[in-house]
Amino acid sequence: MADVLNLLASYIKQHPPLTNCDGVLSWNSSIKKSNNKFNFYLRSWFRGYRLRGGLSDSLQKGPSAILGRAPNGACLKLKAEARSRVIETKKRRILDEEQLATIHEIFQDLNEDSFDEKSLNHAMQIGYESFCEAGKKIEKKLGKKLELFRPSTFLQFSQDDRGRINTEYLYGFIERQSMMDEMYVSISSFDRSETGAISREDFCAYLKKKAVDVPRICKLGRDDQANWVLHSCSKIFFLLDVKHSGRVLIHQIVHSNPGKELLKASTGLSPQEEKTNWFSEVYSKFIHGLFLKLDENRVKSLSRSNLYKFNERSLCPAFVDRVFEEHVTGGRMTYESFLDFMVAMTWKKAEASINFYWRILDVDKRGYLTIANVNFFFKDIMKSSQERGNSTIEAGDVVDQIFDMIKPRDPTQITLKDLKDSGVSRQVFSLLTDVNGFWRFNEVESLPSEGDNDGTY
Questions:
Q1: Sequence-separated (6 or more) residues with CB below 8 Å from residue 168
Q2: 38-83 pLDDT, tens digit each
Q3: Contact 51, 2 (CB under 8 A)
Q4: Beta-bridge partners for 333
Q5: Cα separation, 350 vs 135, whole angstroms
C-alpha cells in the first residue's frame, strides 16, 4: 500500500493542484489537516478494489473530492496499480494439482481420527494448533504463504466437542478458493476496459475460450457452442446486472451462485447435475429445444402467437401480451430475449426477475398494484382454466390470499418494495401468470372452489 501512496504522491508533485499562491501542494498548511482523511480514502479505495474486484462510485470519488483540482491521471494510475496488484495476488494464490496433493498429504499427517455419530463414519479432524502448524508446513513446502490459514478461516467450519474441524471440508474449501482465483484472473484477461467490471461482449469472448475447457461443451458443433455462449451469458448478466449498466463486477461473478454454478460445470457434472445445471450441455440444448419447438417457421424469433403455445399454453394471454409490450422490441422475441424470459421464469425470487415481472404486472405504471390490477391477471387465469375444463375459484378469495401473503404496508395496494420484502414473489407470479402454477399452488394451499362456504383457505 505504501508503494501505491508513493506513486500518487510522486504524480501530485509533478502535477500539483492549485492549493496556494505558489501552485504547490503543501502538506504543512491547511491540506495537512485533511492528510489523514486523504490517506483513509486511498486505503479504502484500494481495499474496495481488492474486496470487490472493482471500485464503487463512492470510493472512486474519494481522492478527487479531497484533492479538488488534481488531474484525473493520478486516479487512473492508482486504479491501474491497484488492479495489477489484485491480479498478481490472486495469481500467487492459484494452486496446481501437485501443490494441492502436497496440502492433502500434510493434512493426512496431522489428522486426528474420530468417529462421526451422524454419518457413522470415521472423520479426519484437526484442532487449531494443528491448523496453524499445517499452514507453516505448507508455506515451507510450497515456498509461499497461503492467506487462508488464519483464525477467520478456522472459525468458518463447524467444530466437534474438542474444537476440531473436518480436514476434508477444509481441503475442499482451499481447492474451491484456488479455482475461484483462477477464474477471476481468467475473466480479467478479457476485460478490455481494465476496470474490474466486464462487459457482455467481453464476457462472451471469455465464454468462447471457456467452451474449450468445459467437458462435453468442447465436443459440440460450432452452432451449438455459440448457443451455449449466449445461453451462459444470459443468466450471468440477467441476474447480476440488475441496473442494466451493461457491465458486471468480476468479483461479483466469481462469488455469485451463477458463477459457482459455471465453475462446477467446468469441473464436470454427474448425469443428474447435467439436468439441473444451467451451464451444462444438456440444459443448454433443452432450452434451445424449447425455442425451436415454438419457432415453427424457423425464422429465429417468436411472435405472440408462438409464445402463447409455451408449455402447452399454460401462460395466460394477458401475461404474454405484457411480456411483448415491456420486454420485446420490434414485435418479435429473439433467442437472447427468450433466454432472459426463461431465466426470469426459472428464478422468480431473484431481484432481477422480480423487476422483470413487476414491469409486466404494473400495467398502469403507477408504482403499485391495486386490487383491480391483480383481478385483471387472475380473470385471465380463470378463463384459461375454464377452457381446460377446470373448476373456477372466487376471484375475491385469491386476491385476499395474495394480499395476505405479501402483507403490504398499505392494505389497498402493493408496492415493489412490499413484494421484494415479502419473500413470496415466486408464488405470486405463478398465481397470476401461469395456469399450471396456479393449480399447483391451489393443491398445496387448498383454496376453496365455488360452493365452499367455510371461508377458509
A1: 123, 124
A2: 455 555 555 554 444 444 444 444 444 444 444 456 667 777 777 8
A3: no
A4: 302
A5: 39
Residue 122: helix, strand or coil by DSSP?
A: strand
Q: How far is CA 157 from CA 136, 170, 285, 341, 410, in A?
A: 20, 8, 38, 38, 43
Sheet of 165-166, strands arranged across: 112-116, 121-126, 165-166
Torsions phi, psi for 117 (to 5 deg): -70, -25
**pLDDT score recorded for residue 286:** 96
- At position 61, the amino acid (one-letter code) is K
CATH number for the domain formed by residue range(s) 304-446:
1.10.238.10
- The 3-state DSSP class for residue 126 equals strand
Q: pTM for the complete prediction?
A: 0.79
Contact partners, residue 350, CB within 8 Å, separation at least 6: 239, 344
What does the block give as the cell for 257?
A: 451462485
Q: Do domains 190-295 and 304-446 have the same CATH topology?
A: yes
Q: CA torsion sign, 91 to 97 to 100 to 106?
A: negative
C-alpha cell, 5: 501512496
**Would you state the cell numbers that stand for residue 128, as one nine-digit string?**
487449531
Q: Cα–Cα distance between 428 and 405 in angstroms, integer?
A: 8
Q: How far is CA 189 from CA 184, 246, 435, in A?
A: 9, 18, 46
* Top-level class of domain 190-295: mainly alpha
Ranges of each domain in the chain: 97-175, 190-295, 304-446
pLDDT digits (tens, 9 = 90+) for 192-250: 998 899 999 999 999 999 988 777 888 889 999 999 999 999 999 999 999 999 999 99
Sign of CA dihedral 450, 452, 455, 457: negative
Measured CA to CA, the distance from residue 291 to residue 298 in angstroms comes to 10
- Distance between CA 63 and CA 59 in Å, rounded? 8
Q: Could you identify the residue written with the cell 486504479?
A: 79
CB 100 within 8 A of CB 178: yes
User: Residue ranges of the alpha helices (H) in 94-127?
Assistant: 97-110
